[in-house]
Amino acid sequence: MIRVENLRKKFGDTEVIKGISAEFYPGKVNLIIGKSGSGKTVFMKSLLGLFDIDGGEIYYSGEPLSQMDFKRRKALRTEMGMVFQGSALFDSLTVEENVIFPLKMFSVMSPKEMLDRVNFCLKRVNLENSNKKYPAELSGGMKKRVAIARAIAMNPKYLFCDEPNSGLDPQTSIVIDNLIREITQEFGITTVINTHDMNSVMEIGDNIILIKEGYKAWQGSKSEILSTDNEDVNEFVFTSQLFKRIKQSHQTASARE
């Protein structure tokens, strides 16, 4: 579990994150949503420890990040997996070499144990027998699945994903969403995702945080989105006619009940 209390982050005189408090739960898909420039990327990088915060506290399983020494922070990073927006695979390395990379960097496994772990992760993302392929030989969806395999190679407690469906067609996006949800539930991971994809929000959003202009404007589940009267949620989520119809349909069904 990750808990954030009154988090603040400045760049110069500009405060980008303005006192956000939130919780991210294990075994749940936790989504951070908001318009471009709302502060959600800065918020995620602060959670990762990539930015030093200017106020508040971040707790990992009850342990305050600010009180961790270098050794403890390094150990914490081995408990984190990251799926980058562009997959961030090494083009000169094979699929197997990409997935094994963090194991070589941080684990004390034997070569056989590392290969067994790679094969397990590739099987879990439905990429068996793709070990010797290079990123240039893969589709966009396959690259994302390799990135997920690499992110879970160290068996992380925490999984962070930055726009995992960026650049993917709708059908492939659904595959990636379902894969992330399955892995999150199967391994009890605290998964945190930055996304603009409202299909992802409505399909896998167990716990959703809306950030607006550096503030937490709302927190709830995908089902609560359909019933909330929060103006910021309605402005962000239901701008399209499709989602307006979805909400109206939900409200009509609830009234009948």
UniProtKB/TrEMBL annotation:
Name of a matching Pfam family: ABC_tran
Alphabetized UniProt keyword annotations: ATP-binding, Nucleotide-binding, Transport
Top-level taxon of the source organism: Bacteria
SMART domains associated with the record: AAA (SM00382)
Nucleotide-binding as UniProt keyword: yes
PROSITE patterns membership: ABC_TRANSPORTER_1, ABC_TRANSPORTER_2
Bilayer-spanning residue ranges: none
GO molecular function: ATP binding; ATP hydrolysis activity
InterPro entries attached to this UniProt entry: AAA+_ATPase, ABC_transporter-like_ATP-bd, ABC_transporter-like_CS, P-loop_NTPase
Domain ABC transporter: 2-238
Keyword Transport part of the UniProt annotation: yes
The protein, known as: Phosphonate ABC transporter ATP-binding protein
Source organism of the structure: Thermaurantimonas aggregans
Lineage, top ranks: Bacteria, Pseudomonadati, Bacteroidota, Flavobacteriia, Flavobacteriales
